[in-house]
Design a protein that fits this description.
22-stranded antiparallel β-barrel, 5-stranded mixed β-sheet, globular, transport, membrane, transmembrane, transmembrane beta strand, mainly beta, tonb box, about 900 residues
């Protein structure tokens, strides 16, 4: 049935023409400069494109479907001197206002009037908070990747693990898009692939109430508008190299061994016309290697301190070399092709891909670094787009996309590799590093997605820009998690020497499944633009079918190992209905037969989400805005499907938490009030107050009893709630007089019942009562201050990025016997203390020279300029990253055991490089 419905939907959508996303609008008025009267029939052309319009009876014009970028726009009329406005900036989803004053001319004038436009500091049709960074601005900032740029925006911060949070939401609440199409990995709600800064034309970070066309996100949208080739050939080649340079060797081993080529970056791009000006291309590729700053020492071999060699037991030590335990190696690229097939039809094809290999620090393996593993990720996506212009200001869009991402983690490729050793090697006393042993876990997952999206846009009159559309996505999710165990002989005795084995999928040591969820959405929105009022209003509909199953009998959910010997399921009357037959034993059924009566289907989830935004210009350089919206999001697939087979064992106590494919969507309501105001010629300020009410966050249920006494389990449920409130203040100065700067401050309080879906489960294991009060979330950051400054001329430039923020919360712990003679309360409140303040400064200095037809730039980048020793984690008993009372109480521990390098952010790193542009 599902296949039939999918085929019908694809057949219907295939009759609709294709599209191109990421577009803005230019609108304005053409008047006679001498009289002020409107000019009817003036031609307005965007040079280098086939886009244009004619002014109407009131001298007004509108040009829609303008791709994000900078353009020269010309206005001309017979008997008037032609005016060309250069450097006109167009941003996605916004209107650029451009008026023309034409001067009458009785004789032909050979030269046109040229005007250089400045991008407005106040965007009058912006009804919600968002940050936009163009490619020109990106080039001026000392950055390593886009995530560094995203976290510089007001209301955005990172947690201790590097996860990005927008306005206090969980890191899974962000939707990542390329040109309006999702590249979010719905399994973990992270980016399915990496897009590099060289590919970005415009970065749009929406942290407020986004329009109805954006869905499946609760706290923010990151939309990456990518470059396309222009009418002239352009190319760039960039290379830089360097290393970490720090004297904090008490924490970071080997960091003082500076190697100028330890870390490196190679990046190239090219674009321009192909064959003729109707066909354009753009390519970009990057290789980025980071050798890491957390090192272990190869003191012990994973295979043990001794080995058999020629029948003799000989020592098998490591070579004591330093081994990086958090390195990263990434390849990424983009290829784009656009073809103006006809005046009203344009084809665009995009391909993006990246692969990355990482190592992750595990403290217990610090002297046995080759015994633990890292991860390998790969992702790619293809877009096919066609824009069909129906009328001058009416067009329809259709996008077909294929997305794939894969992640795997394993020590050795072969699961039966003889280098694996017995898990007993991992049993060491507390406070001691491993002397031997290998990680026996093997993990892999991937998601394949097909996305079909249609949009219709029409400027139906001078006031209303109407847009509506539909989107369908089908996913195929694969997941496998294996814990290798010792193989046994026919008598059940473990083989000697150790041989790894894989248990069957009915075992908790081996999870393997495929799931095929579907999504459908539709929206309609209207942008109403009066002279003194702009309104964005819309409504979104979302449908999600998890295509999952849940057990009919919650007291006996494990189909592989039922607790009840007798069941009530049998078609006793032969009428197709399940009836009672207490004599039927489940072990008489095959697995396929049991599945027919063991499970019931999950329900289809639907929701409606209204959106409203209003911008009211109070002056020609200031506006007040208000916005409201309800935002809903499907839980990440990991919460739905991992453990949804409920493989309970006979062990006493609470087991789980298990996935629940019947979860409801999560929901948040956002209110926002803001002010934009330009003052002087080059300064602007933006003040925003916001409030978020969050419901139905994913949590863990209270223990669910089973048929056997003493055995219970927990599953995922919609239970947690939170609220976030705050104020952001941003001050920006555009680049004039050889400098520009931006400063933003965020005051925010983010509170909730639980920071993660697992937190409630682990509280239950410790005997805690169900959480009923709000406490600071793990990533709550009360005060955040970001600043960037650029100083430069035609051939030189220097930029600085700095950030300062208060510490995130932690839960204080109480060590028995450590506070004799003092009044100490045990069981302190969750997240009731704060970590230390964190500060960081990044610097880039560059110099440009001209060599033949090439622009050559030399630059130096320094990240964490002052080598700040910033703590991201602390010991709960002291609130410090470098001291715990435990080390005073414990007598038997390894040297350096209590030195955790992952408690700190990265030390200073220095890079030098060059960039060649043609």
């Amino acid at each position: 049935m599902k296949t039939k419905h999918t085929f019908i939907l694809l057949l219907i959508l295939s009759t609709i023409p294709f599209v191109l996303n990421a577009q803005g609008k230019i609108a304005g008025k053409v008047i006679d400069k001498s009289t002020g009267e409107p000019i009817v029939g003036a031609n307005i052309i965007i040079e280098g494109t086939n886009l244009g319009a004619a002014s109407d009876i009131e001298g007004e014009y509108v040009i829609v479907r303008v791709p994000s970028g900078r353009y020269n726009v010309a206005a001309s009329y017979i008997g008037y001197q032609k005016v060309i406005t250069q450097n006109v900036q167009v941003l996605n989803d916004l209107t650029t206002r451009l008026d023309f004053e034409l001067t009458p001319s009785d004789v032909k004038i050979s030269e046109d009037i040229v005007v250089v436009a400045q991008a407005p500091l106040v965007k009058k049709d912006l009804t919600a908070t968002e940050a936009r960074v163009t490619s020109e601005e990106i080039r001026q900032l000392p950055l390593q990747d886009l995530n560094s740029l995203i976290t510089l925006q007001a209301g955005v911060n990172r947690d201790a693990g590097g996860g990005i949070h927008i306005r206090g939401g969980r890191s899974s609440e962000i939707s990542y898009l390329i040109n309006g199409i999702s590249i979010t990995d719905d399994f973990s709600r992270s980016q399915a692939l990496q897009v590099e800064t060289e590919s970005v034309q415009e970065l749009q970070v929406i942290s407020g109430t986004f329009n109805a066309e954006y869905g499946n996100a609760m706290s923010g949208v990151v939309n990456i508008i990518t470059k396309t080739g222009g009418s002239k050939f352009q190319s760039n080649f960039e290379v830089w190299t360097g290393d970490y340079l720090s004297d904090h060797t008490d924490v970071f081993w080997n960091v003082d061994d500076f190697n100028p080529s330890a870390n490196f970056n190679l990046q190239a791009s090219a674009g321009g016309p192909l064959f003729n000006d109707d066909v354009h291309y753009f390519f970009a590729a990057r290789r980025y290697y980071d050798g890491g700053y957390i090192y272990g020492r190869n003191i012990y071999s994973p295979q043990g301190r001794y080995k058999f060699e020629n029948g003799q037991l000989v020592e098998n030590p490591g070579d004591s070399s330093y081994v990086s335990m958090n390195s990263s190696d990434r390849w990424s690229g983009q290829a784009s092709f656009s073809w103006q097939m006809f005046d009203n039809l344009k084809l665009k094809i995009d391909a993006f891909g990246s692969s990355e290999e990482n190592r992750f620090y595990d403290h217990v393996y610090r002297l046995n670094p080759y015994g633990t593993m890292g991860g390998k990720s790969a992702g790619y996506t293809f877009f096919a787009n066609l824009t069909h212009l129906i009328h001058q200001n009416t067009f329809q869009e259709f996008t077909v996309a294929y997305k794939y991402n894969d992640y795997k983690s394993r020590l050795y490729e072969d699961p039966f590799d003889p280098r694996y050793v017995h898990p007993d090697s991992l049993n060491v006393p507390g406070y001691h590093f491993l002397r031997a042993g290998t990680n026996l876990n093997r993990f892999q997952r991937n998601t394949r997605s097909v996305i079909i999206k249609w949009d219709f846009t029409s400027q139906i009159d001078k006031i209303n820009l109407v847009k509506f559309g539909v989107e369908y996505q089908t996913d195929n999710v694969f997941y496998e998690n294996i814990n290798l165990i010792p193989a046994v002989d026919e008598n059940g005795q473990q083989l000697q020497p150790f041989v790894p084995a894989i248990q069957t999928i009915d075992s908790p040591q081996h999870d393997r499944f495929e799931r095929t969820p579907d999504k459908f959405s539709a929206y309609i929105q209207d942008k109403i633009e009066f002279e003194s009022l702009i309104i964005n209003i819309g409504l979104r509909f979302d449908l999600f079918n998890p295509n999952g199953r849940i057990p009919v009998d919650p007291s006996d959910p494990n189909i592989f190992n039922p607790f009840k010997l007798e069941h009530i399921y049998k078609d006793a009357n032969n009428d197709g209905k399940i009836g009672l037959d207490e004599q039927t034993e489940t072990n008489k059924f095959t697995l396929e037969e049991k599945e027919k009566f063991w499970y019931k289907e999950t329900s289809v989830k639907t929701q409606l989400s209204p959106r409203l935004g209003i911008a009211y210009p109070i002056t020609d350089k200031g506006i007040i805005r208000f916005s409201y919206g309800i935002f809903q999001q499907i839980p990440e697939y990991s919460q739905l499907y991992i453990g949804d087979q409920y493989k309970l064992t006979s062990a006493q106590g609470i087991q789980g938490p298990f996935g629940n494919p019947d979860l409801k969507p999560q929901r948040t309501t956002i209110y926002e009030l803001g002010l934009q105001q330009q003052f002087f010629e080059d300064f602007a300020i933006d003040i925003t107050a916001f409030y978020r009410d969050i419901r139905d966050w994913i949590s863990s249920s209270q223990p669910i009893p089973t048929f056997l006494a003493g055995i219970s389990y927990s599953k995922r449920i919609n239970r947690d709630f939170a609220n976030v409130r705050g104020i952001t203040l941003a001050v920006n100065k555009r680049f004039t007089n050889n400098y520009s700067f931006g400063v933003d401050y965020t005051f925010q309080i983010a509170e909730g019942t639980n920071s993660s879906p697992d937190q409630e489960f682990f509280s239950q294991l410790n005997g805690a009562e169900p959480t009923k009060i709000l406490t600071p979330l793990d990533w709550d950051q009360t005060h955040t201050l970001n600043a960037n400054v650029y100083i430069g001329g035609e051939t030189w430039g220097a930029s600085i990025i700095s950030s300062l923020h208060t510490g995130q919360p932690y839960t204080p712990t109480f060590i028995a016997g450590a506070y004799t003679g003092r009044n100490v309360l045990a069981g302190l409140a969750n997240n009731s203390r704060r970590k230390p303040l964190i500060a960081r400064v990044d610097l880039e200095v560059r110099k440009n020279i001209k060599i033949l037809d090439s622009d050559v730039q030399f630059f130096v980048k320094v990240f964490n300029l002052f080598d700040a020793k910033n703590p991201v984690l602390v010991f709960g008993d002291t609130g410090k990253p470098d001291f715990t009372i435990e080390q005073l109480q414990v007598r038997d521990y390894d040297p350096d055991w209590f030195v955790y390098p992952n408690f700190y952010s990265e030390p200073r790193s220095v890079y030098v490089g060059t960039k060649i542009s043609l």
